[in-house]
Automatic annotation (TrEMBL):
GO CC terms: nucleolus; ribonuclease MRP complex; ribonuclease P complex
Entry keyword annotation includes Methyltransferase: no
Self-association state and partner proteins as the record states: Component of nuclear RNase P and RNase MRP ribonucleoproteins. RNase P consists of a catalytic RNA moiety and 10 different protein chains; POP1, POP4, POP5, POP7, RPP14, RPP21, RPP25, RPP30, RPP38 and RPP40. Within the RNase P complex, POP1, POP7 and RPP25 form the 'finger' subcomplex, POP5, RPP14, RPP40 and homodimeric RPP30 form the 'palm' subcomplex, and RPP21, POP4 and RPP38 form the 'wrist' subcomplex. All subunits of the RNase P complex interact with the catalytic RNA. Several subunits of RNase P are also part of the RNase MRP complex.
Assigned protein family: Belongs to the eukaryotic/archaeal RNase P protein component 1 family.
Any GO BP: rRNA processing
PANTHER family for this protein: RIBONUCLEASE P PROTEIN SUBUNIT P29, RIBONUCLEASE P SUBUNIT P29
Location(s) in or outside the cell: Nucleus, Nucleolus
Gene symbol of the encoding locus: Pop4
Keywords: Nucleus, Phosphoprotein, tRNA processing
Principal subcellular localisation of the protein: nucleus
GO molecular function ontology, one term from the record: ribonuclease P RNA binding
The name this protein goes by in its record: Ribonuclease P protein subunit p29
Record's function text: Component of ribonuclease P, a ribonucleoprotein complex that generates mature tRNA molecules by cleaving their 5'-ends.
Length: 200
């Protein structure tokens, strides 16, 4: 029955086992309020951090020769289909390159476009040996273009201090390499400002 001595003894023994750190006086104080909160701490499961897949380091990319083009593949004719794809991509991007199109709008789109497959010519350079190099862009890095020429020679041309021109459907665009030192992925989000004069 409620209030019997056996019940009190059972509750006291149960509370001592459940809350071993508590003194008898504190347990009696809890009983007078008729509210008992048992001390039970659930072990929190440690959250496992998701490991992000890491890409290759620059050293690993060099060792694996990921960006190297084999000598037998360094042929201009092999990349002509890539150039045709690039021309179609630019026509779609610029809505057909119509004669009444505004040049600065086309120029703005070309600055953000992917240039892999474009035929470019070095028109100005601080180094005279670069002037006149023409070919298809095979790879674009932050500071250089890799270009394959009609003579099947792979040229690495720095962007710094060079001016490049590219022509498509009669529209000629000039690229100042010194202001173009970005990766292709970064360039698509960059806002280019129009400037009156640009030094090499």
């Amino acid at each position: 029955p409620q209030g019997s001595e056996e019940a009190k003894a059972f509750i006291n023994a149960f509370l001592k086992r459940s809350m071993p750190k508590m003194k008898d006086e504190a347990i009696q104080d809890i009983l007078t309020r008729k509210a008992v909160v048992l001390e039970h701490y659930s072990k929190k499961k440690a959250k496992q951090k998701r490991k992000k897949p890491k890409g290759f380091t620059a050293k690993q990319r060099r060792e694996l020769r990921l960006f190297e083009i084999e000598p037998e593949q360094q042929r201009y004719t092999l990349f002509l289909p890539l150039h045709e794809l690039w021309k179609q991509y630019i026509r779609d991007l610029c809505h057909g390159l119509k004669p009444d199109a505004q040049p600065h709008m086309i120029q703005g789109k070309l600055l953000k476009a992917d240039l892999h497959g474009a035929i470019v010519t070095v028109t100005k350079s601080r180094c005279p040996s670069y002037v006149g190099i023409t070919g298809i862009i095979l790879q674009e890095f932050k500071h250089v273009f890799k270009i394959i020429t009609k003579e099947d020679k792979l040229k690495v041309v720095p962007k710094l201090h060079n001016v490049f021109s590219l022509e498509i459907d009669g529209f000629v665009s000039y690229i100042y390499g010194s202001k173009f030192q970005l990766r292709a992925s970064e360039r698509s989000a960059k806002k280019f400002k129009l400037k009156g004069t640009i030094d090499l």
